[in-house]
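Possible regression after last week's pipeline update?

I re-ran a chain I had predicted before the update to compare outputs. Posting the input and the new output here so someone can diff against the archived version. Not blocking, just want to make sure nothing changed silently.
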Amino acid sequence: MILNQIQNIPEEYSEVQYNHKKYSIVKETFNNGQSYKIYAEELGGKDFISLNYYRMSHENVLKPCEMPKEKVIHFLNNYQPIL
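New output (post-update):
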């Protein structure tokens, strides 16, 4: 499920809605599509989400940056794209 949410985020810059607030989000894909770096920041606020995600042959690894894994998972499961 987490991988699907990550893959649904457009490459480069976009904006999403999360917890009734607008966030800018940047996604970079590297290692031939096997790794992702995501950084989201609340526009006009102080909240941010930062993570790396690695698809490996034996497992997928979610690595939050300076925050609990639960916060990252909640964001990935609850953000809404802004069309």
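Follow-up from reviewer: compared with the archived run. The radius of gyration is 12 Å. Marking as no regression found.
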